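Q: Hi! First time doing this. I have a protein sequence and I read that you can turn it into a structure. Is that right? Here it is:
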Amino acid sequence: MDKINHKQTIQYLNFIFIKSKKSKLDFESSEGIDEAFRYLSSIFNLSHIQCALLSIIFSFTIDEDLERVRTQRLLSFLDMELEDYFDLTGDLELLIKKGFIRQKNEDRTNNLYNSSFTINQALLDMLLRNETIEFEKLYGNGYNFVQFSGHMYRINKYKLLNHQSKVDIFNSIESNEDRNANLTQIQTLKSFNLDVKDRFAMYYLIHKQSDLESKVSTYSLSFDVYGIANAASFIKQLSDNKSQLQILGLIEIVGKSNEVQLTSKAKELLLNEHCLTKNEEEVETSHYYIKHDTIQKKELFFNSEIQRELNILQTLLKKDNFKEYQQAMKLKGNKAEGISILLYGPSGTGKSSIADMLAKQSNRDIFQVDLSVVRSKWWGESEKNIKQIFEDYNAKCSKSDTIPILLLNECDALLGKRNHDGEDSHDMTESTMINLLLELFEKNSGIIIAITNLVEQLDNAFMRRFTMKYFIGNPDKKAVKSILKSKIDFLDEGEIERIADRHLLTGGQIENVSMKCVISKIITKSNPTVSEIMDYCENEKIKTNLWKEVF
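A: Yes, that's right. Below is the predicted 3D structure, encoded as structure tokens:
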């Protein structure tokens, strides 16, 4: 969406307005509707239902020449009854909080039903003038520095997922800084003559602080903010207390650990007590699409038993084989013509890498869900989010020659156990969500891969819905040796044997060790010794292993 074309935006808003009449907000999938919703969702970062409500209020304001749209008029247009209205309250509240629409109370209560709505004049001006939508202006005075920092954090996250360069990211950050120059904290950071990389490091840490994560790994900060090419240099500066942020007294290393945090000076300059609580009103996209040809090829090593099982699964997911499987399920009369796969086990054992490998080898794209933003504090909103995910996924399946993979990472956040004894609204909501998900699983005609480190927290009903369940445990000595040989290629066979004898690490832990070896070589201009590698391994070891195979 780099090129602004709000003529198309307005056309799509009007198109959805027309399709919404008497629809009860239940839309049949078609190429035109799907394209309109995709476009509007990407522009406004809203769900399809929220885009539809925005379209209706926008079009009534413009086309119908109404100053405001009363709730009763809105319901009549949609052919919805009063009881249906309660399903919309969360969406309307969000549109108000995000500054897209304005609410006027028609009586002395703050009841949404006794209200009327109009499009925010600031948004209307941006659209009609064909200008970039400046979301911070829609927030008005409520847009603060913590929200800005979170915005910069997400720009980095999603641009990297779309394989944009660090140069593009830093240019985007500078552009947003210019647009929000009224925020005094940005002016303060610029007054220190910090370059954009260091300013972004501060935004990164401020976002983490507001997300109640006060300490951040130096490796995460270095690689996420400065990129692979500059990470080692920044880590060296940190270890020598020579980074510009340390010299200015804005960040500090925590004791003897490999973690960094904001100093009291930085908090006093840039934050206040009100800003240190997590902002629940910010909305992120609940899923993103990963093309199979952008997935980096990896050589994976597992215990022989699980490797055999994965080979079978890989063969099944080949295009022709999977089509044959679907036809066989259809002939048997199964509701679910697709396949549901559960990968469970300790952290760092390669579960996410397996999903990537399966996608890469079967030429299937990944439709990955960010479960952290599916749940909502608003009654009924989480269920809508879940429905929308499966609607979007099914739309992708119907248009793709090769069915993509629906990936639910950390699926315990969504598929957790129900409280069968609870009678409060939270328990009822949880039960409703689980029942909805069970129904959607039963109708699955695609490929679902769910990943969890906490399998014991999954609802038992879901365990029965998974066609295949794989425990991905810690690698045995043979697998550890293969991983070491692949990741740390300057070791000889004897050195690999010595390390494997003493440290049965996971693939993720060995990956961290190999990263430290690379950094050490960049800084010292020589490979680390076996003794140093042993120390790296010791630091990665998990002292206790609470995991047991439960199936």
